[in-house]
Amino acid sequence: MIKKLSILLLCVFWSSTILEAAQAATAPIPVPPGNRNAKQPAVPGGSKIRTRATNGSFEGKYQKIRNHLALDKKLARKIKKAAAKYKIDPVHIVGALVGEHTYNVDALDRIQTYYVKAMSYLGTNISFEYDGEHVTKFVQRPEFANCSAFKNDYDLWSCRERIWNVKFRGKSVSGKNWPNKRFGQLFFQPLYAGQTFGLGQLNPLTALSVSDMVKKTSRLPKLSAKKAPKVYKAIMDPDSTLHYMAAIIRTSIDSYIRIAGFDISKNPGITATLYNLGDVKHRARSLRDKNKKRKASGKGPIYPQENYYGWLVNDKMSDLANIVK
């Protein structure tokens, strides 16, 4: 059964790869700047609760992070430097930062605090494991065998996450009951389950998924799931987290060109939306498949849509662009 499932997953992957190659052969449709929705999509209840708990407001939180970025010229230079390495407009990074600190967390009073926190993680003994089983051992189970066919970090960890969802999540395997939780939440967030960290509000699994790109492009050390403290330091340290953010955004832009046939490089609200939602290649494939059906029935394509988070970024674009002008 395991072997059949693995073969099926590989067949799906290679079929998708062929379709993606065909899509890449045609010129992508440029997604213009601005919002597709006239009004902001609904903000989730969780964001509202977190904001009320601090007696704050979304506008107040926006102004706080916006002012942090505008006044810290050194940080703005670092944002532009990281963006240049990945050949993206730095406003994409600014947009992701603004979205995270407006809707998910409050910006720290001083960016310097992130540096202090980053160094504190190196002395800890945290580990990516669940119930005594380290994630690096867990993914050696036979169910994950064919994931080794993927040579880049993003596809490798995505494959492992798919296997987790299909074979383990909320199921009993070999007499052991596995929680109905996300792969990243169960194994990769031993400090505060479900949380993200640092200036860029990254989680460890996301950083691991672009570690090979960051090593190649920015010459930063390759991250390893075996060394959890170093992963946490990388996502807490503003000097490195900006490069991981840029790599994630670059992955989104490339995936939508190659898979969905859309160039989103001129729309920071869309890249911010994807930064917020994650699972970029799956979303690109879903959009591609929808538009394939629409084309067959004589309808025009659906463009990528911004969510509440990306909508704010596009709505504030004239203000945000000045930060890294």
What would your notes on this structure say?
The model has no long low-confidence stretch (mean pLDDT 87). The strands form three sheets. Strands 1-6 form a two-stranded parallel ribbon. Strands 2-3 form a two-stranded antiparallel sheet. Strands 4-5 form a two-stranded antiparallel sheet. The protein starts with a helix and ends with a helix. The chain contains 17 helices and six strands. It is mainly alpha-helical. The chain has one domain.
Mean pLDDT: 87
The gyration radius over C-alpha positions equals: 20 Å
Look at the helices and sheets and give the structural class: mainly alpha
**Main sheet record:** 2 strands, parallel
The dominant shape is: globular
What share of the residues does DSSP label as strand, in percent?
Answer: under 5%
- The counted number of beta strands is 6
* Helix amount: 55-70%
Spell the H/E element sequence: HEHHHHHEEHHEEHHHHHEHHHH
Q: Give, in spatial order, the strands making up the sheet with the most strands.
A: 1-6
**How many domains would you count in the coordinates?**
1
Task: Give me a quick take on this structure.
59% of the residues lie in helices and 4% in strands. It is built from 17 helices and six strands. It is globular.
Topology of this structure?
Elements: H1 2-24, E1 29-30, H2 45-53, H3 58-71, H4 73-85, H5 91-103, H6 112-121, E2 129-130, E3 133-134, H7 135-138, H8 153-168, E4 172-173, E5 176-177, H9 183-187, H10 204-209, H11 211-218, H12 228-236, H13 238-260, E6 262-263, H14 268-277, H15 280-296, H16 308-315, H17 317-321
Parallel strand pairs: 1-6
Antiparallel strand pairs: 2-3, 4-5
Helix pairs in contact: 1-13, 3-5, 4-13, 5-14, 5-16, 6-12, 13-14, 13-15, 14-16
